[in-house]
User: Which sequence fits this backbone?
């Protein structure tokens, strides 16, 4: 992903951060401003731009929120290629600001940025600076700032959604990376067993619930889906998360297909790009960079459950 020190891009990638015991530790995002009605970042249509990569699950959650809330005309995007170069994330399309690589966007930040070069990035055209590079914050901001009815985070469910988000991040979203980037057998064993224990618990929960939080789509579901979409085509093989496949879970697999059927969601899913990204050349995981042909997974069978957005708060008053 690359790193920048005092605003200067470093070509040498330091690789994932790990503890002395070989366990993976995710670096913290440091650019964390907020869009609020009072400013300085106000919720104005056409003001903000997202820099994303289709294969990045953290960027995917922002794309999902943008799609299900119908914000495509409000928030524009630039997409990076699935395989990073020595310049880190580079863009496939005509990018905003004329930047050919993401580090050129970070270089515009004041004061000078030090940290990893990650997606997603929410850019403010008006002040010419990064609002945030924290995917959880961007996801929540899109909901709160541009969906006044707060359908993805109803006030009555905010605490419950927060608890789900925390568990999903620690044990599932980041859990697959803790397994895939482990540098010792002990670190891998602990990570992979915790991951599948969490998936088992969610599968049991979904036996009696349509979604994580009840009958309707919430932010928590959008936080879980990117990992599920990549599980069988990438994490099962590339990250050795192979105690089971997503398709082996009766309720979780049905739920994943129901989420995929929500209007707008399928347009954010690109299985071939996931494989190209996760099987890119890696000295430790895939030194030859060969992308496997399979697996063939059919997401088309109709799910038993139907997942919809809850009715706007204003319509139920």
Assistant:
């Amino acid at each position: 992903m690359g790193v920048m020190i005092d605003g200067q891009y470093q070509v040498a990638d330091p690789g994932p951060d790990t503890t002395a015991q070989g366990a993976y530790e995710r670096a913290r995002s440091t650019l964390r401003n907020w869009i609020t009605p009072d400013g300085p970042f106000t919720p104005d249509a056409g003001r903000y731009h997202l820099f994303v990569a289709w294969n990045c699950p953290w960027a995917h959650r922002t794309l999902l929120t943008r799609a299900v809330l119908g914000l495509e005309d409000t928030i524009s995007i630039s997409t990076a290629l699935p395989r990073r170069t020595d310049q880190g994330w580079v863009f496939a399309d005509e990018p905003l600001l004329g930047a050919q690589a993401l580090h050129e966007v970070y270089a515009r930040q004041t004061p000078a940025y030090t940290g990893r070069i990650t997606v997603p990035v929410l850019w403010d055209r008006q002040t010419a600076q990064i609002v945030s590079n924290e995917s959880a914050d961007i996801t929540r901001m899109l909901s709160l700032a541009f969906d006044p009815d707060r359908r993805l985070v109803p006030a009555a469910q905010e605490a419950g959604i927060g608890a789900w988000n925390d568990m999903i991040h620690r044990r599932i979203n980041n859990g697959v990376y803790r397994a895939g980037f482990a540098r010792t057998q002990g670190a891998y064993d602990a990570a992979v067993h915790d991951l599948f224990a969490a998936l088992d618990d969610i599968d049991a929960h979904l036996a009696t619930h349509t979604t994580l939080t009840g009958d309707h789509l919430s932010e928590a579901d959008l936080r879980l889906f990117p990992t599920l979409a990549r599980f069988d085509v990438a994490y099962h093989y590339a990250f050795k998360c192979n105690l089971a496949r997503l398709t082996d879970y009766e309720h979780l697999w049905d739920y994943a297909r129901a989420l995929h059927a929500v209007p707008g969601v399928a347009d954010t899913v690109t299985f071939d790009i996931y494989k190209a990204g996760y099987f890119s050349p890696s000295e430790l995981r895939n030194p030859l960079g060969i992308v496997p042909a399979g697996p063939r997974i059919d997401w088309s069978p109709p799910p038993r459950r139907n997942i919809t957005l809850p009715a706007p708060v204003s319509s139920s008053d």
